[in-house]
Amino acid sequence: MFNPNRWREISPYLDQALTLADEERTVWLESLRAWDPELAVHLEALLHDHRVLIQRRFLEEQPSMSRPSGLTGQTIGAYTLVSEIGHGGMGSVWLAERSDGRFERQVAIKFLRIALAGRSGEERFKREGCILGKLSHPHIAELIDAGVSSGGQPYLVLEYIEGEHIDRYCDHRALGIEARVRLFLDVLAAVIHAHSNLIVHRDIKPSNVLVGNGGRVKLLDFGIAKLLEEGAEGEAATRLTVENERPMTPEYAAPEQLRGAAVTTGTDIYSLGVLLYVLLTGQHPAGTGPHSHADLVKSIVDTDPALPSETIAAMGAETEASILNAAKRGTSKERLSRALRGDLDTIVAKALKKNPEERYTSVGALADDLRRYLLNEPISARPDTMAYRAAKFVCRNRTAVALATVAALATGAGAIATTIQARTARLQRDFALHQLLRREAVNEFNEFLLSDAAPSGKPLTIDELLGRAERVLARQHLTDETNRVELLVSIGDQYSTQDDDAKARHVLEEAYKLSRTLPGQSIRAQASCALAGALARDGELTRAEALFQQGLRELPTESQFALDRILCLRRGSEVAQERGDSQDGIARIVEAQKILKKSPFDSDVQELRVSMELAEAYRMAGQNQQAASTFEHAAKSLSSLGRDDTQTAVVLFNDWALALDRLGRPREAQKLFLRAIDISRAGETDESVSPVLLNNYAKTLRQLGHLNDAVRYGERAYTKARSVDNQLAISQSLYVRALIYIDQHDFGRATAMLGELEPRLRRNLPSGSYWFGALESARALLAERRGDVRTALQLADRAVHTTEAAVKSGSQGLDFLPIALLRRSIVRFETGERDEAASDARRALNLFQPGGQKRIYSAYTGQAYLALGRALQAQGKDDQAEAAFQSATEHLQHTLGDDHPDTRSARILAASVQLR
Amino acid sequence: MDSVISTLIGAAEQGDSTAADALFTALYSELRRLAQRQLARHGGPPSLSATTLLHQAYIDMAESSGPSFPDRSRFIGYAARVMRGLIIDHARRQRAQKRGGLFEITLLATDPGDNSIDDRELVAISDALDELAKVDASLAELVDLKFFCGFSFAEIAAMRNVSERTVQRSWEKARIFLHCSIRPDLSV
User: Fold this and answer.
1) A327: Cβ–Cβ under 8 A, 6 or more apart, which residues?
2) Tens-digit pLDDT profile for residues A209-253
3) What ipTM goes with this model?
4) Are A561 and A522 in contact (CB under 8 A)?
């Protein structure tokens, strides 16, 4: 006990010390020591104790008054409460027995201190409890029931487990490293099972991993952290009850959890990494000694932990703690450090990566490495290895591929639309595949693709990788046919990403055939809908639609099938878009979005993906306004997820920019393209940037009149497209470069570009394609600039007819039509056909700005007004001309800026009409 | 009854120690009555939040006793100490009833083995708090409010009309005092 006088004396110094930061405090103590050494020693002891009590969380948990045992005997559902066996911040836990006497069973009933928002909250709680209850595994404590008492208190009925925390169990028995790893593998088996059921634990820590006397591991509280978080949100929203805030224990939290970013299976991998670290070293990765809450958070988010072997080596040789720590592992400090060095260091480090994408892609992969370690085989993880580089490679190329297909949709001044639609949606799905981690087998397969398949570190083409994977799969006797179908579907998806539709289709047909022999509703629907997507791309639209409908029909409406239903609807949206029914395409994605929002699997990451696809569907349908605002929304959630600099962001910014470009807002588009390029560049050269992205950027630069930069990027795009042999990107960059050269009056080069483009188009496209209209239109522009207005007129005419015919026949080209009209209007103005010039300009204007969107500024609208004004002026209709020039000025100022040549022309013309 | 409490608070504030004792007893029985009512209510929560209970008590008493009743902050200042007594007594009873056994079941985000305070420690803390009250009554009251009654720093800062930082610093000091006190090897 303190001597009161001593306390009064020391108290003001404590006040002072507690306001100082750690470093300041040391200095301050030193100066204090100089004149009162005794006081300094006391203070030091107290401050040391302060650090200890912080680590112990002393007094942080409020004691609570529980229902007195006199009330024991209450019934909850089919159970009678026997006695309280624990309580804490989250509520209390009771031992209970079945009361209907049918069979004897002891259970634990956990009363949760959360407030559920009304009936819907209760139903959601029960529903999610029901999903968690389906987890059945020998190493997972069973959740028997979830309910809400008559008084509104939510509770969980759990398997009653007797056991010790895993770390204490290991220490008490002085288990060696191998025995610890073996025990840990049981933990992994449980987590693998849960992940394959789409349940993330979110709160793995020693106190949730119990080991019974027989050495049997049991994981507690799977997925319950999520239930509680949701409950807590409801509570915050209503503020009806004043209860304890949930004490945050960040020791085992992953960086993304502390940052409030999305929680995925990778989050559990991280927590497992911390657990393994603690089991192996007896220390937390953040280092020894007590941490304040803030220091711990900072360390988890920012600081790479010391390798386990280093941690052991750094412990003082003769300290009691160090000797004890090794003894608990049945060895000496030196031997322990040696045992950890190498493989275990590497495995732990990989699980503890700050960036979830750099961790093991699945718990299964982590388990495999630990098994390999036990068998003395080489592990897959390497510090900064081939596998790592190969993963980077695939990642980069996937982006390139994604953008290549995005390119197909490029529109705008250079108006390249395409014969291939609806690709981006599919590509984004593949990006998302990693987030979602649908099934362990698929993840292990991906892991294989990313590591083992590229042993030399030499970049294999993705095609080679997939071919290899397919052969491996054919040789493997997968005991579970369901897994086999999953893998085939995954390979098929990857082939689709490569635009290798024939191979994709072949593999998916096989998956479908195999799935017919299986009873699982989920796998049947997956196979059927995946094939639907592939068939649609191949033009077999009727069968595609039938398969999609079949897949949807086979799926029960229960929420555990929500993900499959969403997946089917997304493929169905592709089918509809491929068929040209863009409204149906939108409707299906909207439906998927609705299901997602209601489903227990709802997460920011998934909502982001679906909203990106919705935006893309809008863009496909030509509803660029909706597309742009949906992209904007998606970009916000991307940002809040902390994924601003990921490959997903590259695709998002690119697609969003395309929509803006199409709306005639090139300045905004330019910024987004540039951001996408910067992200792709990632400290390297342009080498890693997709040619399509470079080309899109060049096109926007041209529109803004930055011709020198435009040429540079256009040429880079072309070179890059050649080097990666991307045919579509080659064609597109030829077209864009031609337009830029025309603007630069470099007619020779422009002619050469178009000359190279034409045979490529003839080879690859049906004769009715509007692309030929675009080619003719570019040639018309070239002739007009050269002063050959006769030829220009003929070409401009043909361009309009070709495009109109393409639109009429139901293929694409509607986006390009106003541009063809605008160019013809300009040529007709030159040839003196004033009325026709005016009528072309009016038609273009109506197409650019359908029905009363006058308030939305667009460069295209501005340019059409400019052409219209000129024609009207030539017709002598000065008043109307002046109004047109003024509209042109307004639109162009807002979209191209004051200094753009078009803006200046419009302003000068408006002024000159007034002067007359 | 409630006007009695009101009068007792007045007298206690004048330094009447008999009144202070009587006030404690009166509040104790009132809070106890409320707690039992809550716990006994069919389907009521198996554990009670002290904060809720105090709010409830204040509302009950202030309503029936009219404008002369002290303001909420003052009332809670007194009641928090009483609350501690209630919790400690409860803990003592629980300890007497609790069955032994080696099992452990964990609570989410808590770890009874490490974090939650056992009943013996709780009693020790309460004794140390009585000592602290003799040296620094305000620090002791802070512990009653924060630890035993579950008020947040912000609420306490508002009650005392000081900054949250000040409350936090005092809290750390109080924790040091108590932690050292219940670990004799560290006593100054």
Assistant:
1) A174
2) 999 878 899 988 776 666 665 544 443 333 222 223 333 456 788
3) 0.79
4) yes
